[in-house]
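Record 1 of the preview.
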Amino acid sequence: MMEVKASERPKSKRKHTSRRADFLHAMDKLVPWDSLLEKIDPAYPKPTKKGGRPSFPLTVMLRIFLLQHWFKLSDPAMEDALYDIKVMRAFAGIKRDQQVPSDTAMLRFRHILEKHNLMVQVLWEIDATLHVHDVSLRIGKMVDPGLHAIVGKSHASH
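->
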């Protein structure tokens, strides 16, 4: 039997991506990031001269909050996912050499949103934006069939 060397094997022209990666790619394009960050920024802690532990960037915490919401992950499960699942870490904007927010940091962020009545506003704005694009999400499902058209369009544009 003749063995085929790896260099002689046919290479796939299409790189396979997971449904999770496709979903996050679509959400990255659809979510109104600037508007959401503008809403939350006044309530988010700023660095002080007193010192103390600096907060994680607002955009990172918002993206983690949404990952938790979409995939129904507790704070400890989200922290583990950020260590274990490369596509989630990338979506959150955390590089390999950067620290992952602790489950306590995630809890504090959610408390900030609750204290300033921002949680419902954030989720409503995302839902309204998705509705404009004829996309509906069923929380706990990785990809709703309505996303296939958007994911397909975004892959075609690459």
